[in-house]
Write a structure and sequence with these properties.
The chain is built from eight helices and five strands. The chain is of the alpha/beta class. The protein has one domain: P-loop containing nucleotide triphosphate hydrolases (Rossmann fold). Helix 1 packs across helix 8 and helix 3 runs parallel beside helix 5. The longest helix is centred in the middle third of the chain and has 25 residues. It is globular and about 50 Å long.
């Protein structure tokens, strides 16, 4: 490991994408890479990474749970509010690089585009629960919907409550991500999963993130 490097201020990076796009794998690979480079890194996931968040995550993903669309959206928001207060804000204040598997864009795409919950309301609630914190960089891993669902099922051995939804739902989610990537071109970087190997995808991600760190200006 290289000598510990300190950023001038915390850097927030998120990973987004549809089911089976490789977010968890790629975010963990990036975390290990940056730690080897000597950076202080916190790796988390949304919903989860806190006691409350993990409890909510279990409720949201367990097959058979009957949850209304508005309740589902609010549960994600509750988990996110706890994550921001308990993990993200303290880490950023201590100049960590925070890497989060899913964040604000996931609720817009899954509950907004996917389920039809009012997107403007979701965006306003996101600002409230995150205290207006927004990622500096978002890696959008764009995967073929059907192939992604098969990959996820094969890796986990089962499909969770969200994955069991219809193909049309997951297609709307992907369309939502594509729309957000166009809307936030400076923040969201799209990487087509099927066009690259796992290592090639990671190489692209590292290049994007190292460039972001360079622009973030470490102190002399």
């Amino acid at each position: 490991m290289e000598k510990m490097k300190t950023l001038k201020k915390g850097l927030f990076i998120t990973f987004e994408g549809t089911e089976g796009s490789g977010k968890s794998t790629q975010s963990k690979m990036l975390t290990s890479f940056l730690r080897r480079k000597g950076f202080k890194v916190l790796h988390i996931w949304d919903p989860g990474s806190t006691k409350l968040g993990e409890s909510i995550r279990k409720t949201l993903l367990t097959p058979g749970q009957v949850i209304s669309h508005s309740s589902e959206m609010l549960l994600y928001m509750a988990a996110r509010a706890q994550l921001v207060e308990e993990k993200i804000l303290p880490a950023l204040k201590n100049n960590f690089i925070v890497i989060c598997d899913r964040f604000i864009d996931a609720t817009v795409t899954y509950q907004g585009y996917g389920l039809g919950v009012d997107i403007k309301m979701i965006e306003n609630l996101n600002k409230f629960v995150t205290k207006s914190i927004s990622p500096s960089v978002t890696i959008f891993l764009d995967a073929n919907v059907k192939k992604g669902l098969k990959r996820s099922r094969r890796v986990k051995g089962f499909s969770d409550r969200i994955e069991r939804r219809t193909y049309s739902f997951h297609k709307r989610v992907r369309d939502g991500y594509i729309a957000l990537a166009k809307r936030f071109r400076n923040r969201i970087k799209t990487i087509p999963v099927e066009e690259n190997t796992k290592d090639e995808t990671q190489s692209i991600i590292r290049s994007i993130v190292l460039d972001a760190i360079k622009r973030h200006k470490r102190p002399k």
